Amino acid sequence: MLVPLSSALCATVLGVTCTVVAASADPTPSSTPVPSRQDVRDARRAVAAGADDVPAVQAALRDANERLQRSAIAAERAEEAYNGARYRAQQAARAARRAAQRAGVAGEDLDRQRTAYAATLLADSQQAPQLTALAALASADGIEALMQRVSTIGNAQTALDLQYQRFLAASALAKAAEEQARSTDQAAQRTKDEAGAARETARRSADAAATEAAVIAARKAALVRKLARLQDISVATAAARQHALEQAAAEQAASAASAAAAAAEPAAATPPATPPTTPSSSAPDPTPAADPQPAPAPDPPTQTSDPAPTPDPDPDPPAPSSGAQAAIAFARAQLGEPYVWGAAGPDSWDCSGLTMKAWAAGGRSLPHYSVAQYEQSTPIRASQLRPGDLVFWGDSSSPSSIYHVALYIGDGRILHAPRTGEPVQEASMYYWTPPNFYARP
Q: Where do Pro residues bias regions lie (predicted)?
């Protein structure tokens, strides 16, 4: 049996033409040499190594996908950090403009008070020779005239003091407003510089992610070609099979994440059962002992009073308005358009730019920053999600860690702009990792 086995292995593994000969026949000089026992052992090891490489290649493909995902998430964190810095810079610039306006108003008031005080001072100085106490006494025609002049002197002095106090107050207010305007302007400049630095960081991160994606794509293509050789199929078939495997794995992971999220819902969502009115710990007594005071039983209170129902500890917020459908329709109209960091249309988007413009179409103004979109919406639980709500991904339990946002459309599905290289698309809410924040605009 050695010769047929050797011939088969030679034909299938080594890929050369072999001649099958009888065990007792001597090979002729023109025939191909029969593989030795060592050749057979080597061929068998090669076959075994090739079979072992299939799961190894598939594991390498999974690792490549995970690297791609990590790179994309790192880029999106940097991009949303830039959106946050830009949002804060816009807020600071508005605060600086308001402070400058207040300083301008205070300066105008100071000018008016300065003019009024100068006029009062001038009038007082013009009347001074006639309103001194000595002049009054000398020219007085009687006690009444004297008292009138004394009163006039007092009134003039009071008016002058009052005008001076107004001038001082206006001066202090103008100085404070000017100082605040200067401070807010400096803060605005700092946040503008921070936004510029964040922009550069985001640009570098996006470039690094794009480079990483290209390297990983080339690596995956090489792995798929190797997989095709190992499985003796075409590269196209191997790529289709690998894509189907990845899709099935993603759907399985999404299903598991959905089940885990449902199981993790807080117990407050389902009110506890009403405790029994009689203690369950006491053993039943078929012939209860006579109770000399049966009146205090718990029945009368239900007839004499109707206590207000206990409020839901976590009531559902109002359902999304009709604008939710407009928001979904807008986002759906952008399907297939490219992801570009910092973009908010009309033909390219990042995650928060898409949700901002979608809800603008629905009549709700939201900033171009995922953290601020969460902060300006009503937080909800996963079980409360309705079409039009927003779902968020963050690094921790703090909303300040949010780096991605998507528009919920129902049935566990979302519309979003995922990352560089991936266009606006519809996907499972659990397409990469479960979201950890939910809100209703």
A: 285-301, 308-320
Domain count, the chain: 3
Cβ neighbours, 10 Å, residue 145 = 12
Q: Give 417's pLDDT tier (boundaries 50, 70, 90).
A: very high
404 is catalytic: yes
Structural domain ending residue among the three candidates 215, 235, 255: 235
* Domain of 123, in residue numbers: 44-235
Would residue 290 count as lying in a domain?
Answer: no
Q: Please report the pLDDT score of residue 441 as a whole number.
A: 96
Domain ends where: 179, 211, 235? 235
| Annotated catalytic residue, options 10, 18, 351, 368 | 351
**Of 10, 18, 368, 416, which is the active-site residue?**
416
Active-site residue 243, yes or no?
no
430/256 Cα distance (integer angstroms): 9
* Long-range contacts of the stretch 419-422 (C-beta < 8 A, 24+): 419/72, 419/73, 419/75, 419/76, 419/209, 419/339, 420/72, 420/75, 420/206, 420/209, 420/210, 420/213, 420/339, 420/340, 420/341, 421/72, 421/210, 421/213, 421/339, 422/72, 422/339
Q: Tokens 């008070």 label which residue?
A: 113
pTM: 0.63
